[in-house]
Amino acid sequence: MPRARAHIGAADIAAAVAARRRRAGRVDERLREEVARGMLMITTAGARVGQVNGLMVYETGGETFGEPVRITATTRLGDGEVIDIQRETHLGGPVHAKGVLILGAFLSARYSRFHPHAIVASLVFEQTYSIVEGDSASLAELLALLSSIGDVPLAQSLAVTGSVNQQGEVQPIGGVNEKIEGFFDICAARGLDGTHGVVLPEANVAQLMLRDDVVQAVADGRFTIHAVRHIDEAVEVMSGLPAGEPHAPHADTVNGRIVARLREYARLHGGERRWPRRPRAGAAAHADGVRGAPPAAPPAKQPKPPGRAKRAKRAQRRRSPAGRR
C-alpha cells in the first residue's frame, strides 16, 4: 500500500491529470492510429491548392481532445453561390451554416462589389460522418476558398483554427489548447522539422495553457504558433506571399490573383469568350487585331423611277422590235 504524504506537489497533479486522460483517451488513440496508417488522410508537409488542415474538438469520458481534419474547397464559373456540402447532406449544424454564409458575403463584398460575383464554390470537411457544428473552422474554410480561387498553394505543415466575420477579422474560438496539442502530437509522431505549427486568433493567446512538451518545442523552434487578427495575415503565413490590396491588385500578391480570376469569371459570365476566335483564312485583321474583317456593306439600292418616267420606259420597250414577242 502506497505511503501517505502530507504534501502534494505539481508532479503529482500532472500525473493524475495524465492518468485521467489516458483512461478517457481510447478514442483519441484509435484516431491517431488511423492517421498514422493513412486511413485518415492528414498531410503535414508540402503545399496544396484549396486544401487546409482545420482543427476540431470532441469530448469523451469527461475529457476534451483535439484532432485535425482536412478541409477542401473547389471553385468554378457560376452564379455566386458557396455550397456547404455538410449542410446539403444534413451533416452540418446551424452555427456552421451561418459561418459559411458569412464567407460568401465576405467574398462578394470584398472582391465583386462592382461586377457580377460569377463563381460557385464547394466546401467540405473530408472524412467526417457525423454532425459538424460551430464556426471555429471558418478561417480555415475561407483560406481554402481563397487558395482555390487564386490558385495559391497553402502550407500543409500548419493547421488553422479561428472564426471570421464579414470584415475578415479573426474572432476567438474555444478548445484552443486541445486543438494545438492534437495537431502537435501528430506532427511529433512524424518528426518535427521546424515548419510545423498552428495559426490561431490573437485573442486566444491569453488562454494558452499548453503541455510542457509543446512549450519546449516552441521554445526550441521546432513548433510555431502564429497569432493573427485578419484574414490577410493568415493568408501571408499560409502562402508565404504578400496579401496585397484587393482595391489595387498586383499580380505578385494573393489578393491580386484572386481579383484577376474573379474578373475573368465576370467577363465569361457576361458572354465574352475566354479565347478569341481566329480570323478566317484570307480575311484581313480588324482594328482590334483579333476578329476577322467586317463583312462588306451591301450595294446601295437604286431609287425607284417616278411613275411618269416608268410608264414612258414601258412604252418605249413595246415599240422597239426587241420588246415584241
How are the SSEs ordered, and which strands pair?
Blueprint: H1 10-24, H2 26-37, E1 47-49, E2 51-60, E3 63-77, E4 81-84, H3 85-88, H4 94-111, E5 119-125, H5 138-150, E6 153-155, E7 158-160, E8 163-164, E9 170-171, H6 176-190, E10 197-201, H7 212-219, E11 224-228, H8 231-239, H9 254-269, H10 307-319
Parallel strand pairs: 2-7, 4-5, 7-10, 10-11
Antiparallel strand pairs: 1-6, 2-3, 3-5, 8-9
Helix pairs in contact: 5-9
How would you describe this protein?
- The protein has a seven-stranded mixed beta sheet with strand order 4-5-3-2-7-10-11, with helices on both faces.
- Helix 5 packs across helix 9.
- Helix content is 38%, strand content 18%.
- The chain has 325 residues and is of the alpha/beta class.
- Helix 7 (212-219) links the parallel strand 10 (197-201) and strand 11.
- The chain has a single domain, classed as Ribosomal Protein S5, domain 2 (2-Layer Sandwich).
- The longest helix has 18 residues, at 94-111.
- The protein contains ten helices and eleven strands.
